[in-house]
Amino acid sequence: MPPAPKQKQEYTLEQVQSHNSEEDLWIIIDGRVYDMTKFAQFHPGGATVLYDVAGKDATEQFYGLHRQSVLVKYGPKYEIGTVKGQTPKVEFPSPGTISKVPYAEASGFQGLPTPYYKESHLKFREAVRTFCETQLEKDAWTLDEAGEYASTETWEKMGQFGLLASRIGPGPHLHAFCKMGGKLPGGIKPEEFDYFHEMIAHEEVSKIATPGYVDSLGSGMVIGLPPVLYFGKPAIRDRVVAEVLSGKKRICLAITEAGAGSDVAAITTTAKLSEDGKHYIVNGTKKWITNGAFCDYFSTAVRTGKGHAGISMLLIERGDGLETEGIKTSYSPSAGTAYITYENVKVPVENLLGKEGQGFQVIMFNFNHERWFIVAGITRAMRLVNEECFKWAHQRKVFGKMLIEQPVIRQKLAKMISEVEAVHAWLELITHQMNNMDYKEAALKLAGPIALLKLRCTRVAHDVSDDSCQIFGGRAITRTGMGRVIEGFQRTYKFAAILGGSEEIMADLGVRQAMRVFPIHSKL
Ligand code: HEM
User: Fold this and answer.
1) What is the SS3 assignment for 261?
2) Nearest CA to ligand 1 atom 37
3) pLDDT at 365
4) Which of 141, 221, 435, 441 is the most buried (most CB within 10 A)?
5) CATH topology assigned to domain 361-516
6) How far is the CA of 178 from the centre of ligand 1 (A)?
7) Does residue 3 surpass a pLDDT of 70?
8) How far is the CA of 40 from the centre of ligand 1 (A)?
9) Which tens digit of pLDDT belongs to each residue from 217-240?
């Protein structure tokens, strides 16, 4: 929340100037007067720097060294009034508002004509952004640094607000969810809800910009629930979907193993039918499972036979024989990235997702949605990085002028902005196409374009990370302070280039899909 302007006292410049000693230290930041006398000795930047500006206007020094959030946190405690004749100019956006920084939002949200976004998308974005900023963002950074998972209360809050349901996409499950008393953000009706609403939900969560903690807010669910939703037996599906969307239970997708990443067919975790035919007995391990450390359910790929046709999907509940252990990644442990061990885990045959031996199809069916979701998240993260760079370039002075006045910085910004706008425009087009196809048709026709979009997106992320680091300098490798968002991005953007299929696999898949529909008799 922005600090409430304190109009209770107005001081003349001369009055402020007279409080200019270590024992009586006032400063001005953007027309507001702060009494720093007691704070000076606790100031993380040291007391001396404050003594140097005692009784003076320190706006430029302050905004050259601090994020706005510092004033939001400490301002109300130390602000004592305003300067007569000066009106504070710096904006403190209220929760849910759209940024006015150029290219910080998709142009359709900054008032330009758009074929995609309707009133319901604007309403939805405002509601989700307000929720994220007021309910999730305020302690995200502290929890991410501490490596803590999102609490059960946070999950239930997300469930009640309809954020979890919004991240699984349109479909009959939303009607079921609302019939059972659930609500969607912004009062959107299930029949209005489309893939743009879902895309917005992913974007807004990604904008929280604490990559590990952001993943702990449901990335496992986004990829782990669809196999149950589309391939689970009705009784199990209805129970599990209701539990997960309300935030009472958590689910993740367990496919990759130490010896099987993008090469899904190499998985070795086995599921053997028990003698009475009532259970599968699962043995093996899984690695890099997002949210695995704290989930209740695991949509797990298992081997029930040989080759591609020997892969099946099982819904496995945490219980005897299933152990999870956190893996240390470049992310915060908040993401709950886990190594999973299955030792003689008994799974009822009813928990088979799809048919035995058709696990590969179940996995492929969901991969497009997973990749599209990764693209939505990383693109939004890049937009935020660009916004931070644009602001920083207007804040930071070097060699006597603003960074933005240096042509080399404008060149970098031009590249970053144009690349992000291009991938986002492709994302919007594909999302529009998803809205106009059923899930099956989209899985077939959009697999190639989504793979190529993901490839382009993570290549752009590489460039954006590189350029933003050069713009932010030392702050881009410092976890706290001005470059916090850039530091988090450069440390973690590679996740998107590997998860859900590596760049190399995306490139190959994209072209092979195009080869399938190439009219073979076309000649030069
Ligand atoms: C309301 C007034 C101020 C408050 C509440 C405040 C608070 C803080 C805080 C919380 C930090 C740590 C920032 C972080 O790492 O996230 C910090 C750092 C710092 N502050 Fe202040 N500050 C104020 C004014 C000033 C002024 C006027 C100056 C300079 C004249 C200054 C100079 C510095 C410096 C040099 C650092 C270290 C920055 C770095 O490591 O990059 N501060 N301040």
Assistant:
1) coil
2) 45
3) 87
4) 221
5) Butyryl-CoA Dehydrogenase, subunit A; domain 3 (1.20.140)
6) 48
7) no
8) 10
9) 999 999 999 999 999 999 999 999
CA of 63 to the centre of ligand 1 (A): 9
- Of 51, 56, 60, 66, the one to substitute when testing ligand 1's pocket (max ligand atoms within 8 A of C-beta) is 66
All CATH 3.10.120.10 domain ranges of the chain, comma separated, are: 10-83
- The contacts of residue 410 (CB under 8 Å, 6+ apart) are 404
Numbered ranges of CATH 1.10.540.10 in the chain: 107-217
Which CATH architecture fits 10-83? Answer: Roll (3.10)
Q: Which atom of ligand 1 is nearest to the CA of 34?
A: 1
CATH match of 107-217 with 1.10.540.10: yes
CA 211 – ligand 1 centroid, Å: 25
Average pLDDT over residues 103-109: 97
Residue nearest to atom 18 of ligand 1 (CA): 45
For residues 125 and 129, what is the distance between their CA atoms, to the nearest angstrom?
A: 6
Region of residue 499 (phi > 0: left; psi between -120 and 50: alpha; otherwise: beta) = beta
Tokens 């009472």 found at: 248
Q: Are 130 and 201 in contact (CB under 8 A)?
A: no
What is the rounded distance in angstroms from the CA atom of residue 90 to the CA atom of residue 85? 16
Give the ipTM: 0.95
Q: How far is the CA of 45 from the centre of ligand 1 (A)?
A: 5
CATH of domain 251-357: 2.40.110.10
* 5 pLDDT above the threshold of 80: no
Distance CA 479, CA 473 (A): 13
Please measure the distance between the N-terminal and C-terminal CA atoms of the chain and give it in whole angstroms.
62
- The Å distance, Cα 471 to ligand 1 centre, comes to 20
Could you report the per-residue pLDDT of 375-412, keeping only the tens digit for each? 999 999 999 999 999 999 999 999 999 999 999 999 99
**Residue 104 to residue 386: CA distance in whole angstroms:** 7
Residues with CB under 6 A from ligand 1: 27, 29, 34, 43-45, 49-50, 53, 58, 61-62, 65-66, 70, 74, 78, 480-481
